[in-house]
Design brief:
By secondary structure, the chain is mainly alpha-helical. Helix content is 80%, strand content 3%. The chain has two domains: 86 residues; 32 residues. Strand 1 and strand 2 form a beta hairpin. Helix 1 runs antiparallel to helix 2 and helix 3 crosses helix 4. The radius of gyration is 27 Å and the shape is elongated.
Length: 155
């Protein structure tokens, strides 16, 4: 049998162990590169989807503004639609690091607006999740309510 390394793993010579180590590093780098590429592709897809959703909301606001024509609120709704469309273009064209820097910069310049926006976004997300859960329960019926949920109900 060959020599034993410090961790009691046999190897025949130091040249062979350094070659194995080099191959292991190369394979690990390949896996990391593949994972990075896959994540970047998924982020790009989600980013385009988010930009599309923002355009949809902007279009809905624009239609609302047209229906409110003559009302004092209409210009504000139209301005909100324009802002959302600009945000959609930014999301579509900016890379992830640029977006992160932009959000950080805005949070430093306008901390109260940032916190208020984060709160509002959280409220919208909570309403969305609650509505999704209600829809799922309506579609699945009693199967959607687990025993844990029943235990939390008040008597």
């Amino acid at each position: 049998m060959g020599q034993l390394a410090k961790n009691n793993v046999p190897f025949s010579n130091p040249m062979q162990s350094s070659q194995l180590l080099g191959e292991a590093k190369e394979k690990a780098q390949n896996v990391m590169d593949q994972t990075k590429d896959m994540l970047e592709e998924q982020l790009a897809t989600r980013k385009q989807g988010a930009a599309g959703e923002l355009v949809d909301v902007a279009n809905a606001l624009r239609q609302t503004s047209q229906q409110l024509d003559g009302n004092s609120v209409a210009p504000y709704v139209a301005k909100a639609a324009d802002q959302l469309e600009r945000a959609s273009n930014y999301v579509r064209t900016a890379d992830l690091r640029e977006m992160q820097r932009g959000v950080e910069s805005f949070a430093r310049r306008e901390p109260l607006l940032f916190i208020g926006g984060a709160f509002a976004l959280g409220m919208v997300a909570a309403r969305f999740l609650k509505a999704s859960a209600a829809t799922m329960e309506a579609n699945l019926g009693p199967m959607a309510t687990s025993d844990i949920d029943k235990n939390w109900e008040k008597p």
